[in-house]
Amino acid sequence: MTPSRGRTGRPPLTEERRAEIRLKIAHAAVDLFVAQGVAATTGEQIGQAVGVSARTVWRYFPSKEACVRPLLTAGIDTLAACLREWHPGTGLGDALVRILEADERIVVGPDPATVGALVRLTRTEPGLRAVWLQTYDEAEPAFARALAERAGLPAGALRPAIQAAMFNAALRAAVEQHAWHAADPVPDPATARTELARAIRSALTVVGEGLK
Asked: Would you place residue 190 in the very low, low, confident or very high pLDDT band (cuts 50, 70, 90)?
């Protein structure tokens, strides 16, 4: 009997490695979008910037605009955890800003300047605007579940759903306000993060009474 052969070829990528590739593609896409516009950017160019084929790009993302998603979703789980663990009597703005300062993945991803440039593009690029808004739309149920758990309410309860919508809208407004009015040239990452934290605290103060 012929002995069976073991599996040959490259070993499958780990989830960590896949996430790393997705993030590299996201950075490359934003850089190209900023430099030459979305319409002029191709999947082949994005792949070349990362050292992968266009086929690999499309394996991870359904469109070139969707390539930016990893930069926008990095902080959702951290934000939900912040809402879940938010202590009564503590201002949500202060609690969130403390986590923002401790965890650089939250809200702005690993590079505030890159994500700021991306958010500015959403004003003129409908495809990117759709991805940006969809990201917040998908995050809102996670925020509602966290707030329901915090309050001891069943999932799907109306109050945490409304609270999550308020929180989500304030968060998006703060990030957009910060990105659209950022100084030119863009300040260093530490300064950008401090300014974003200030915008988030101000936005959450506005809606704070509705989130108690």
From this structure: confident
pLDDT score recorded for residue 186: 63
Q: Can you give the pLDDT at residue 107?
A: 47
- Mapped onto helix, strand or coil, the DSSP state of residue 16 is helix
Q: CATH says 15-67 is which class?
A: mainly alpha
Amino acid at 187: P
Please tell us whether the domain made up of 74-211 is placed in CATH 1.10.357.10: yes
Q: Which residues contact 2 (CB under 8 A, 6 or more apart)?
A: none
- Specify whether the CB–CB gap between 175 and 212 falls below 8 A: no
Where are the chain's structural domains? 15-67, 74-211
Distance in angstroms (rounded) separating the CA atoms of residues 151 and 144: 11
Q: Cβ of 36: how many Cβ atoms within 10 Å? A: 11
For residue 62, whether the previous peptide bond is cis, meaning omega lies within 30 degrees of 0, is no
CA distance 129 to 12: 34
